[in-house]
Structure formats: structure tokens, C-alpha cells
Write a structure and sequence with these properties.
heterodimer, A: 127 residues, alpha+beta, three-stranded antiparallel beta sheet, 5 helices, 3 strands, globular, B: 403 residues, alpha/beta, seven-stranded mixed beta sheet, four-stranded antiparallel beta sheet, 13% strand
Chain lengths: 127, 403
């Protein structure tokens, strides 16, 4: 399988790998996918008082495209408001990374991870 | 040291330079058709073909008259199974016995015979990849016309108990076919002692050229086959088609070298394979697939838990290996062999087959051990599953949001 240069760059130098304190009430954690399907993404966001995402971390079990998609969204969500982050579409991720058709599901999973992280954050805040 | 390091000798082997040298004169210089009876061009080609036949037979202690040239093990398997099933169906029956972990060249041929009205039983191996003599015996029926069990599995390298299975077949009046593509030159095979009626060989798995193979067809007691390729009546009518002299000479020389060098070569390769296993055994959550005792010396198949197969292959691109994961398409298809062993999808996906060979060096194995340590650690740092495992979470209890 041949990957785009951007996928290889994110795969070899993944951005924002790691974990935030999942018990911190300003942190939202989203975990999507399943091991049997070959991908699990964990995305965490830390939201400031102003509603802007200050930090984002990820860990991904999956192929190079899954790792690159999650690495890319951690870069994209930082500095965005929650609503702006929710507006990120999988098609933008797929386009940015030039994902082949068989890897589109990786970008869908990354979009789902943002939604799951935001949902967790909002639940904590009682929204 | 040349990168990527080739550790995929069960996929194919390089032609040994000594073999290539023997082949070349039979291309342009001695180009005659071995079937030409009326001039020296044909005579010398025929002599070369017959010498090669003796060499192939000698490796497995058979008679040269029992060797039929084919294009490779896939064709040998097709000729053996279809040829015998069709010839003996009326007298013996229409049941075929085989194993779920056979090569696709056997499984798909049996499936085709099922479409033609035969009935098949696919034995499931134990967790170590081996079938038991008892389960095989229990599955044999009075109408079992042929049984097919590979000597050595191509993915996990385990050696099936073909001597015992052959005795059961003989007693049952069932023909016994053995796919020995991965076994010839890698372990002793003695057809004078084994109750095997048909055995498939490939040249390119044993430092010979691609595109040539052979089928052993026992003469005492005589085994008959319906030909699958019709034409000029070559190979006593069993397989028509002009014989490729240079390919045949190559296979003969490769098998001659295997016979001479196998003893010392196996021990050298086994030491390197064991070094590789020892070198990675300090990595946590590594699982060997297949029995380590009943196994050829050059195969190591391991699963690295909590890393995904495709990213693993990307990470270790400096070594050329095979993966149990065939996820080049949207549908993930983990190795059917590892699934038959009862491995989870995740472990099947993260499996790597290392197969060593004649030109593998200790330096290459040392490099591979270091590379695996570094890359597995990197991928696990990235893996949420590894993080959960380290937190003591039992992943089988997690409710996954499947997509």
C-alpha cells in the first residue's frame, strides 16, 4: 500500500501523542472503534474557561492512516472552540491526508473521536 | 548489509548462483526440445531432463519414474487431487479429507471438487497448529477417496504427522496426498518409508527457479490419475506440454544441493532462528504461533499484542517479512491459519512470519532484534490498548463503540 507523504510524516512523527488526566473536569475523553475492527482511537481535549480547546492528545491502535488522521485532528482542534471543532468533517481530513478510498473509514473514525470527546466534556459540565 | 533484510524465504527464495549457472547453457546453447527423438539437440535435452528427474527423486528417496514435471506446487496439487478424485470416484467414493490450514492451492481445489459433487471434511487443528492422528482416523470414511495434508505449514512452519496419517490411509484404502512445497530440502523426507501416494514439490521454495515443480506419483502400489492438461502426451500422458529444460535442470540442481547441504544448513538456520526468538522474548506480550517442537528450523511466527498489523509492517519496513494481516482492502481479513488456531482477530492481525534461509546472516538477525525492540515500543506508546492493558483493564470486558 502506498501512502501520501503527509500520512507518512504523521505516522513517523505523530503530533500530540499521550494522555491527559481523564478525571480532570476540563478534559473530555473520546474512545471510538474496536480492536476487532482494527482501529481504536482515543482523543482527549482540554477546554479552557473561554470554551477554547487548549490542548489535545491522542493514542491510536490502527493502520498508518488511522494514526495520521488522529494526529492531524489533534493539531486542528487546538485553538478552536468546541463548536468549531465539531464542524471538522471527515472529508476535510481525508482530503488533507490524500487518503485512498479504502482508508476513508479512518477519517470518519477521527471525526467520531472529536464528537465523542466533546460529548464526554459536555456530560462532565452537565450540559 | 543490504536493506530491507530478506526474511521471507517461505514466500520464495533467490535462485542459488550455482543453480543459475547450470541453467544458462540450456537456454540458447542447448535449446533442443527434450521430446525431439530424431537428432542430438533433442537427445541431449532429454538426458538433462532425466538427470534432473533422478536428482529430484533422490532428495526424497523415490524412483525417478515416479516424478512428473509440473509448473509448480499449485499445479501438482491440482493434478493430484482432481486427477485421483476423478479416477477413483467410481470405485472408492466421493469423500475427501483435508485440513482447514492447508494452502489455498489445496483448499480451493477441494472446493472445486465439492462443486463437482464430492463431499469434503476440513479438520480443525489444535491450538498448536497440529492435527491429531485420532481426529484424522475418526474422520476417515469407507468412501474417503483421497486425503490431503501438508507436510509443513507455510505460515507457521509446523510439521504434521504424515507418517502416521499415511499408515491410516493405506489401511483404509484411501490415497494420501502430501503438499511438500515447504518441506522439501527443509527436513528429511523418505518416500520409501512413508505411506504417501502423491507428493507436491516446488523448485522456487528451495533455491531453484519459479515456474517449475513436480508431482511424485507412487508406482508400487500404482497410483493412477486422470490428466488435467491434455496435448502431446508428455510425462507418460499425465501432463502434456513441452518440458522447460532450463527450469528442470535448475530444479534438479537445487534439489541436488539441498540433499548435499541440508544437514548442516538446517542446523545453522535453526541457531539463527532460535537467536531471533530469544532476542525478542524479553518483549512483553509476544506470542509464538504454532508448535515450537514439531516445526521446521527456519520459521518463526509471532504475534505482538496491542499493536496493529498494518502499522507494524510500516514500522518494520527495513525487514521484508509476511504479515498475518491482509488488510490492503477495506475488509480486514486476518490469516485464516491463525484464526483456525483460535487466535483472536487482534493477535492474528499483529502476527509476523519470519522465515530465514541460506543467505541469512547473524548480523541481519541482530539488526532485526534491535529494530523490533525499538518499533514495538514506539507503537505501544501510541496504542490506547496497551495503555489500558498497563492500567490493568481486561480488554475483553470493554464495550467497544464499533463503527
Amino acid at each position: 500500500m502506498s501512502y501520501s507523504e503527509k500520512v507518512i510524516d504523521h505516522y513517523e512523527n505523530p503530533r500530540n501523542v499521550g494522555a491527559l488526566d481523564k478525571d480532570d473536569e476540563d478534559v473530555g475523553t473520546g474512545m471510538v472503534g474496536a480492536p476487532a475492527c482494527g482501529d481504536v482511537m482515543k482523543l482527549q481535549i482540554k477546554v479552557g474557561k473561554d470554551g477554547v480547546i487548549k490542548d489535545a492528545k491522542f493514542k491510536t491502535y490502527g493502520c498508518g492512516s488511522a494514526i495520521a488522521s488522529s494526529s492531524l485532528v489533534t493539531e486542528w482542534v487546538k485553538g478552536k472552540t468546541i463548536d468549531e471543532a465539531l464542524a471538522i468533517k471527515n472529508t476535510q481530513i481525508a482530503e488533507e491526508l490524500a487518503l485512498p478510498p479504502v482508508k476513508i473509514h479512518c477519517s470518519i473514525l477521527a471525526e467520531d473521536a472529536i464528537k465523542a470527546a466533546v460529548a464526554d466534556y459536555r456530560k462532565k459540565k452537565g450540559e | 548489509m543490504k536493506l530491507p533484510i530478506y526474511l521471507d524465504y517461505s514466500a520464495t527464495t533467490p535462485v542459488d548462483p550455482r543453480v543459475a549457472e547450470k541453467m544458462i547453457p540450456w537456454l540458447s546453447e542447448h535449446f533442443g526440445n527434450p521430446a525431439s527423438r530424431s537428432h542430438p539437440y533433442g537427445w541431449e535435452a532429454e538426458k538433462a531432463v532425466e538427470e534432473a528427474r533422478e536428482r529430484v527423486a533422490a532428495l526424497v528417496n523415490a524412483d525417478a519414474k515416479e516424478i512428473v514435471w509440473t509448473s509448480g506446487a499449485t499445479e501438482s496439487n491440482n493434478l493430484a487431487l482432481k486427477g485421483a478424485a476423478h479416477f477413483y470416484a467410481a470405485s472408492k467414493g466421493r469423500h475427501i479429507l483435508t485440513v482447514a490450514t492447508e494452502h489455498k492451492a489445496v483448499l480451493d481445489t477441494v472446493k472445486e471438487l465439492e462443486r463437482q459433487g464430492f463431499e469434503a471434511t476440513y479438520l480443525m487443528p489444535q491450538q498448536n497448529g497440529l492435527i491429531t492422528v485420532e481426529q484424522f482416523q475418526a474422520a476417515l470414511r469407507p468412501d474417503t477417496v483421497i486425503a490431503s495434508v501438508m507436510a509443513v505449514n507455510n505460515e507457521i512452519g509446523v510439521i504434521q504427522p504424515i507418517a502416521e496419517l499415511g499408515e491410516l490411509c493405506r489401511a483404509n484404502g484411501t490415497l494420501f496426498h502430501v503438499d511438500a512445497a515447504q518441506a522439501a530440502g527443509k527436513m528429511p523426507l523418505d518416500l520409501a518409508r512413508l505411506n504417501v501416494d502423491l507428493m507436491s514439490f516446488s523448485a522456487h521454495k528451495a533455491y531453484g527457479p519459479k515456474g517449475i515443480g513436480a508431482l511424485y506419483v507412487r508406482r508400487k502400489p500404482r497410483v493412477r490419475l486422470e490428466p488435467q492438461m491434455h496435448g502431446g502426451g508428455h510425462e507418460r500422458g499425465l501432463r502434456s506440454g513441452t518440458l522447460p529444460t532450463h527450469q528442470i535442470v535448475g530444479m534438479g540442481e537445487a534439489f541436488r544441493l539441498a540433499r548435499e547441504e541440508m544437514g548442516s544448513e538446517i542446523e545453522r538456520i535453526r541457531a539463527l532462528r532460535d537467536k531471533l526468538l530469544k532476542g525478542i522474548s524479553d518483549i512483553e506480550e509476544v506470542y509464538v504461533n504454532g508448535d515450537m517442537e514439531q516445526r521446521v528450523a527456519h520459521n518463526l511466527n509471532v504475534s505482538f499484542n496491542f499493536v496493529e498489523g498494518e502499522s507494524l509492517i510500516m514500522a518494520i519496513k527495513d525487514i521484508a517479512v509476511s504479515s498475518g494481516s491482509a488488510c490492503t482492502s477495506a475488509s480486514l481479513e486476518p490469516s485464516y491459519v491463525l484464526r483456525a488456531l483460535g487466535r483472536s482477530d487482534e493477535l492474528a492481525h499483529s502476527s509476523i512470519r519470519f522465515t530465514l534461509g541460506r543467505f541469512t546472516t547473524e548480523e541481519e538477525i541482530d539488526y532485526t532484534i534491535d529494530l523490533l525492540h525499538a518499533k514495538i515500543a514506539k507503537l505501544r506508546d501510541l496504542s490506547p490498548l496497551w495503555e489500558m492493558y498497563k492500567e490493568g483493564i481486561d480488554l475483553s470486558t470493554v464495550q467497544w463503540a464499533a463503527h
